[in-house]
Structures are given as C-alpha cells and as structure tokens.
Amino acid sequence: MLNVEIEEAGYEKNSKTIRDLSFKVKSGELLGLLGSNGAGKSTTIKTILGLVKEWKGSVTLEGNARYAYIPEQPVFYDSLTLWEHLELAAAAVSFQDGEWEGRAKDLIRYFKLDHVEHDLPSSYSKGMRQKVILITAFMLKPDLYIIDEPFLGLDPRATKDFLKLIEKERARGAGVLMSTHVLDTAERICDRFVLISSGEMAGEGTLGELRERSGVEKGSLLDCVDSLLEQSI
C-alpha cells in the first residue's frame, strides 16, 4: 500500500532531521509510528506528504491508491461551515451523484455533530474540531489513512467511536499509518510499530519482535520502547 524509503530529510539544506528510515504499510494494516517529542515523527509524515523540500529517497503508493491525512491540529477556513468544508473536500474526489452526501450525514450523526453542521468550526470546542477532520477523512474512504496524534482532544466516547471506524476501514482493506504517544492504546490496536529516536529507526516490528529486540520478554509496549530508546542513546 505504502512504501517509504527516506535516505535523509530536513527543513534546510545540509540539515538532516531524519535519516535512513524504511518501512511499509500493507493493505488492512495499522502501523504505529512511535517516538519521543522531537524524534522526527512529524517530519516523517510531512516527508511522506511531500511537505519537506530537502529530502532524498522515495515514497510510493500502490497503483492509484488515494490517501487521507488527519493532522494533529485541525485547520479550517474561517468562512465555511462544517457542511461546506465537506462539500469542498468531496469536490476533490470523483463521487457518484449523492454518494458523499449520505456518507457525510451518517458520519455527522455518528459523531453527534448534526446540531451544528451548518455552524462555523471556529465556534466548536477542540474535540468537536477534531471530529470534523475525522468526518472529512472517513467520508472520502481512501485506501490509506495517515494520522498524526488522533486522540488529542477526543473524549473517551469519541475515541471509542474513532477506533470502531478504523477497524471497519481496515476490514475494507485500508491501510493506516498512525503517529501516537498513547502507547497503551497503540499496543492494543496496532499490528506493527516503527520506533524513531533522534531521527533514526530504533526499532521496527510486531510487539513480539520489539520484545525480543529490547530484551523485555513479557514487557508492555511502553517497556519495550523505553528499553530500545535507552539502547539508541
């Protein structure tokens, strides 16, 4: 689904923020992108999205696969309502007549925003704004989701609703690359993990493989991450 080979990447010439990163996201797989603050997770995602100019390597999507990006900080047009934002997103994708409207309505009700669908997102709470981004992405039904810290601002119920939709999309065959600091949730839902430390890979694989590499035979994902980060120093 997604093949990432980043030799090096940075925001300025001769400045390498990340280097020697190589991983894949398969159809129906949820790959967790882990690392401390400043490790290079966001730079990795921005490189994949084509937002970093100074980089070497290759990022390829299988066939004509489409992706949707769910950012950590939602950004909206000040003058557009929730529904108008969805209209704008749908205009960029070839839908059959009426296809996106029904899907959008269902998602708005699912996330309980039907009472504000014609209001400006600038009037929403942080959690509500995050739901708008989720609605937009799920409405598009892409082949790949690239998600940066999705749990920030979501209450427990909204988090549960989000995870249910992710499972449905994976069952459909969509791949997911998700950056997160919420390791207990990541341990439960991710198939594999990529751990970044100081811009380089410090570990990659399933939880079992991370346990073997870290030497923490029966440890949690947090235990494995701590051990691997210590080894990478």
From TrEMBL:
Q: Which residues form the ABC transporter domain?
A: 1-223
Looking at the UniProt entry, the stretches that span the membrane are none
The organism's place on the tree of life at top rank:
Bacteria
Q: Print the keywords alphabetically.
A: ATP-binding, Nucleotide-binding, Transport
Pfam families linked to this entry: ABC_tran
Q: Which InterPro entries match?
A: AAA+_ATPase, ABC_transporter-like_ATP-bd, ABC_transporter-like_CS, ABC_Transporter_VariousFunc, P-loop_NTPase
PROSITE patterns assigned to the protein according to its UniProt record, in alphabetical order? ABC_TRANSPORTER_1 (PS00211), ABC_TRANSPORTER_2 (PS50893)
Give the range the annotation lists for the signal sequence.
none
The protein's GO terms of the molecular function aspect are:
ATP binding; ATP hydrolysis activity
**SUPFAM superfamilies, alphabetically?**
P-loop containing nucleoside triphosphate hydrolases
Q: Which SMART domains does this entry report, sorted A to Z?
A: AAA
The identity of this protein, by name, is ABC transporter ATP-binding protein
Species of the source: Guptibacillus hwajinpoensis
